Structure formats: C-alpha cells, structure tokens
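Chapter summary example: a protein plus zinc ion.
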Amino acid sequence: MSAGVRARAAVAHGPGEPLRVEEVSVRDPGPGEVRVRIAACGICASDLHVWRTGEGIGFPAVLGHEAAGWIDAVGPALAEPAMDVGQRVVIAWTPRCGRCRACRSGRPHVCAGITTDAHDGSLSLRGVRLGRYMNVSGLAERVVVPAGSVVPVPDGLPLGSACLVGCGVATGFGAAANTGGARWGESVAVFGCGGVGLSAVQGARVAGAARIVAIDPNPARLALARRLGATDVLSPGDGDPVAALHALTEGGVDLAVEAVGGAAAARQAFDALAPGGRAIVAGLTRFTEELRIPVLSLLLDKSVHGSIYGSSDPWRDFPRLFDLCARGALQIEPMVGPDFTLDTVNDAFAALASGRAVRPRVIFEPEPEP
Ligand SMILES: [Zn+2]
Ligand SMILES: [Zn+2]
C-alpha cells in the first residue's frame, strides 16, 4: 500500500456547523481510479441542503460535487483513454460503472454506484474515514475518483467554468433538453433561477423553445434569466405565477421545469401545464415532502417526471455542452461568482444561502493563462 498524499479539505462535522479546513490524507488511486488536483469547485444548492439538514450524509464528511482540475495520479492498469497526468478534467458524480443494470441500459445518471455518502476510505482525517458527498468531495485539494467519472475538458474552456458542468449545468440543461425533451416552438416555464434553473432556461433556448418564462422572487436573478434566454419573467410577489403563465401562454405551458425544491414548487409546475404538458421535478427536497395532484388532471395527458443529473450521460453530454460553450450558445460565466478560497468556504455557503450569489465558487488554484 502506497503512502498517498496530504491535502487540505473543508470538513463538515455536523449539520449547520461551520466547515473546518483541516489537513486530510488522500490515498493513491487504485485500479480503475485517478486522483485529481482540484482547481475549482462550485457550491451547489444541494451542498447547502445536506450541510444544513444532514439528510443523506454521515458526518464528518467533505462536501462539494461540482469540481474540475488536473489528473495528478493514475491507478494501475487504467483502461480509460487519454487519462494522463496533467489532463484537465471535470468530475461527474455518477461513477458510470458500466456494469450495473442502469449503465448497461445507457442510463448512467441512475448508476447503482451513485451515493450521497460514500465512505470508501480514500479521504481520512486522523484515521477516521470521511464521508464523500456524491462520490466527489470537491472541497478538498485532492480527491480519488473512478476514471469513468472524469471527462476531459477542452483547451480554451477555463476549469473554473467547466466545473459547473459537473452538476448544475448538466442537471438544469438536461432537465429541459433531455428529461423534458424540449422541442422547437414549445412554451417552457422554469421555476427557480439558481444555477440549475438558469441552465434549464439555456437548455430550453438551445432546444428551440419559442417562449421561456422564468419564475423567481429575486429581481437580479430574473434579469440574468432574461440575459440567458428567458422571453418573459415572473416574480411570485407580483401575483400567482400559475395564473400568469396560463394567461401568457393561452392555457398553460408545454413543459415546466421545477428547480426550487419542495412540493409547493412541484405542484405549481404541474398546475402550469397545458393539456399534454410535462412537468419535470429537478429540485432537491426534504425526505418527508410529498406531492399531491388531482388524478383526474392526469387524464388530460399531463405528466410529472423526476429528473436526476438532467438524465445526462457525462461522456455523451459534457463534450456537447463544452461545444455549446465554445460557440457561445451556452454561457456559464454569467452564472458564476463571487469567488472564494478554501479558507473562506463558509462565506461561500453564506453567500448561496442569502441568495446574493447564484453560484459561488471556491478557487483552489488559479489556472495559468493559456
Ligand atoms: Zn449539485
Ligand atoms: Zn453503473
């Protein structure tokens, strides 16, 4: 057994307790694994959610699941192509094992290996195995991940932007374009304009939706939604958004994406539908939340569909998203910021909690200019 390396990480010791930056042990990659030196990690609403509630994770744990960096070690007999030391990569939170029933049927976004609470021993603190949120734990300087879950990032796309593709962008864009199957000419409502919702707006735009209505109480986020493709915006403070959506679209939308979290927003997404419409529920909620809908309304050919990871296959979809970035059709930078360091990681969580930031980001290592 080799020695591994030491690294600094933000360790969560209990629900709502400030994260502590501590020196942890990171083991060397085993067969089929790589170790990644993290450049940047976005703070996603689900990091905030599990940190506050403790639901789905066992403390102590290292959060962060939206990270990009450089491969700094590869395990023995690695079969993945182009996984050399120094390769710039984004980490996907599906291990994409290739062997489970979901992976075998082309659905790696529900791979059996996905867990919110891995305790694989690759990260440890004074001999205690640390929980690894979403198999990633991007709030550590170095992490060990399956080679199948890292996707090369093309030259020209900064790692600080690419990291968002690892969760928020794939989740939101895919909720609209993959799970929701947005089509040209359709009307789309997006509830919630955080990183996932704004990415759903962009997914709907790229898919050719004619009308994209963004709903959020925060005026700054609505302005950003307009910039990224929303044709109309609604603030719940100005009246019932469901009634407003029906008025705007002659009787309801074709597709509604819920990116708020919670039964109330999911119900609103469903109620916003026209006959034949699809509601896609993508926001993370408490374990106890239940959705109630009138059964009769389903007979109008309406559906509710859950979405995880935007039904994405990282190896298929991330390169496509990178390509859209290169053409300017997908814009990540307007959603990002402000930036923090590992030492100010608690301020990053506070910025997200307050709504000041759409996507705060921890920069571990500024990337050299190309
Ligand atoms: Zn996330
Ligand atoms: Zn699998």
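Key point: The longest strand covers residues 33-42.
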